[in-house]
Amino acid sequence: MSDRTMARQVLLFIWFLSLSSALGQVSYSIPEEMAKGSLVGNIAQDLGLDLKRLKSGKARIYTGDSAEYIELNKERGVLLIKERIDREALCGQTTPCALHLQIILENPMKFFSVTIEITDINDNTPSFKKSMIVFRISEAAVLGSKFMLEPAIDLDVGINGLRSYTLKPTDNFNLKFKNQPGDGKNVEMVLKKPLDREKQHDIKLVLTAIDGGDPQLSGSIEIHITVLDVNDNAPVFLQSVYKATVTENAPKDTVVSTVSATDPDEGINSKIVYSIANMHDDDQQLFGINQDNGQVTVVGIIDFENARNYEISVQASDHGGLTDSCKIIVDVIDINDNKPVINIMSKTNVIAENPASETVVTMINVQDLDSGENGEVHCSINENIPFTLRSTNANFFSLVTDGDLDRERESEYNISVTCADEGVPSLSSSVTLSLQISDVNDNAPVFDKSSYEASVQENNTPGLSIFTVRARDADFNQNARMSYILEDSSVNGVPVSSLVSISADRGVIHAVRSFDYEQIKDFTFRVKAQDGGSPPLSSNDGGNPPLSGNVSVKIMIQDQNDNAPQVLYPVQTGASVVAEIVPRSADVGYLVTKVVAVDVDSGQNHVYNYEVCRTTDSRKSDLKYGRPCSESIISLDSSGTQTLTHVQRGKLNNEDYFDQVSWCEWLCI
Ligand SMILES: *[C@@H]1O[C@H](CO)[C@@H](O)[C@H](O)[C@H]1NC(C)=O
Ligand SMILES: *[C@@H]1O[C@H](CO)[C@@H](O)[C@H](O)[C@H]1NC(C)=O
Known about the structure:
8% of the residues lie in helices and 41% in strands. By secondary structure, the protein is mainly β. Bound molecules: 2-acetamido-2-deoxy-beta-D-glucopyranose (2 copies). Residues 29-128, 129-237, 238-342, 343-447, 448-567 form the Cadherin domain.
C-alpha cells in the first residue's frame, strides 16, 4: 500500500469516527483479503460501550441474509474477520464496496450500524479470456492496418485495475489505445512495418496487460499471426545461363538440360510453369520443355550442318504472372552423318595418247558437310593405272596422268575415285570416270613380211592382178588407213611403173603389160605403205606426219612353152627334104647324122627330145602306122643340144626312110 493510499484511509477513518459517535453508527475501512481473526475495529470503544454491556446485552451481529464475514468478540469488544473477504466477489467493479451490519444489544434493546468498507488490494492479475489470439494477415496488408485486440480483464478496481498494455516484440506492430466509454481501454494493434511472409511466415507476439497496483501485476497472451502469402515474388532461375550439349540426330525425347527456378511464395503463387520463349520458328520445332519440371528435350531433328549451337530462352512464370528467364546454350556435337560428295568440276572424256606428263584429266571438288575429322576427306584411285590424284588444296583434287598412255595397249580406263572421311565409322563415296584414249599416229604401217616374192606367167594379160601386199598399222581409223604406193625405180632402163601398178587402197599389184620371160625373168621394186594420219588438229596430237613402211617385192616371170625348138642342123631350106644316105650295111650304132636343135624357153620348156618319125607327118601319122617313135629303127641319142641321131636298133629295110626329124616333145618327154 502506497503512502498516499494509506493517508487517504486514515482520513476517511477519522471522518467516520466523528460521524458515528453522533449517529450511533461506526464505519471501518479494511482491505480485502485480511486473514481470519484479523482485527477490523474496536467496536466497543468506538461506540462508547463497555465490555460488560456487550456481554449483558448479548451483543450480536445482524447481517440480514448476507454472508457473515465479520464476527464480534465480546470479550475484547472488537470486530474480527470471520471469513476472508474478497472484494471482487463481494462488489465486483462497484466502488466503494462496503459491508453493512448491525450490532444488536438487548436489555435494553439497541442497535448500531456498522459500515465496513472493503478496500481493494491488488490481488487480481490482469487476464485474458482466451489463451491465444490468432490472426491471419496478408503480407500485403497496408501500413496502418488495425487489428482489434481482445482486452484483458483485471477484477481489481481503481488503481489496481488494468492500466496499460505492452506488445513485444514491436518490429511490425504498435499498440494503439482507444478509449471507449464504460468499457475501459480498448486496444488495437497497428501495422507499422510491412510483413514479409517469405522472411517470417509466423509471427508470435506477446501482449502484456499491466495494472496499476503496487507491485504491478501483469498478464500476457500470445498473439499468433500467420502471414498470408501474396504473389509478391517472381520466380528466379538457379542459373541465368545453362550450358548443354546434344549430339546431332539425337532421338526425340533426349534430355538436353533441366532448368529450375524457385519462387519463395507459397502455394499456387509459387507454382512455376516453364516455357520456351523467343526461338526462331524453325528452332521451335527442335526443343520442347516440360512445363512442370523444366526438362528440355529434343523434339525435332538436330542437324549440326544446319546449326552448331542454339540459344534457347526459357521463361518461368508463376500463376500470378510474374516471370524470370534464363538462357540455355546448346552446343551440337557433330556426328559423321554426311558422306563426302564428289563434284566433278571439269572432265575430259577423251585424251590423246602420249600426253605431256601430269596432264590434268579431271578436276574434282569434294565436300563433306561434317566437321572436324568427320569432314576430313581423303581420296584415292584404283591402283596400277597410269594416273595419280594430286591434291591442289583442301578439297580440290586433280586427276593427272602419271605414266605413258598407249591407246594400242589400253584404249579405255575406268578410273574409280573413292573419297572417304576420317570419321568413325568412315563414310565414303566414289565415282567412276571413264576415259577414252584417242589415237595418235604413232605407229607406222608394218608389212606382213619383210619382203615378198611372187611369180607370174609370162604372156599374161595386161592388168592381171599378180598378188597382194598387206601392211598393218596398230593405230586406229584414219591413222591406220593404208595407202600403197609404188616406189619409183627402173628395171632394165624402163620405169617400174610401166611393168606393174598397185591399187592404192588394197595393195593389189597388177601387171601393166604382158611379160615375156624370154626378155625379163624377174624384177624387184619397192612398195611403200602409208597411213592416213593427218596434220594435227590439236596440239595434243603432237604433229605426227603420216608414217610409212616399205618392202621389196620381187616378181618372177614364169616361163611358158611359147617357143618351139628350132632345128639348126641339118639345115633345112625351103621345103626340101634333107636326105642322109645310110649304107645298107650300117650296123646297129651306126651314126646316121647329127641333129642340132634349140628351144629358147627355159626349164622344162627348154627340155626337148629328138624323135624319129617314120613319115613326114606328125605323130598322128606315126600312130597311124601303129608304131610309136620308140620302136623306130633309128634311135636318137640325146646329149644336150648337140644330139646325135645315131643308133639303129634294127635292121634297115630299103623302104625305110626318114625324111624328117621332128620335134615331138609333147609325146616323148
Ligand atoms: C569400263 O566400264 C564400262 C561400263 O561399265 C565397260 O563397258 C568397260 O568394259 C569398262 N572398261 C574397262 C577397261 O574396264
Ligand atoms: C625403205 O626401206 C629401206 C630398208 O628398210 C630403208 O632403208 C629406206 O629408207 C626405206 N625408204 C622409205 C622411203 O621409207
